[in-house]
Amino acid sequence: MIEPSSIWPALLAAALVTYFWRALGVIVAGRLDPNGLLLEWIGCVAYALLAGLTVRMIVLPIGPLQATDLGCRLVATIAAIITLRLTRSSIPCGVMAGVAVLVGLTAAGVRLWP
Prior knowledge:
Layout: H1 7-29, H2 37-59, H3 70-86, H4 91-107
Helix pairs in contact: 3-4
């Protein structure tokens, strides 16, 4: 059992560490060029991580998505991308189309991948 008196030093240390990095971020952020190479590189890395995680979720899913067929996931992804293009990048429409195709194919028991 953790003693209530031992929680306060840990809470204080966590708060100090958190606010130190926040203060440092405020100080440094005022000196960065929003159109500079550093922030452009950070944006590129962020998009690359997002793309990698998305592909991993489609190709090597975990949880309930793992029970679906890879071919169905790929067809649903293509349907979502086509819908995004047709609706001029409407994310809700693209997501709904992808989900509808995946649910429909999975509910019908379609197997597109050997």
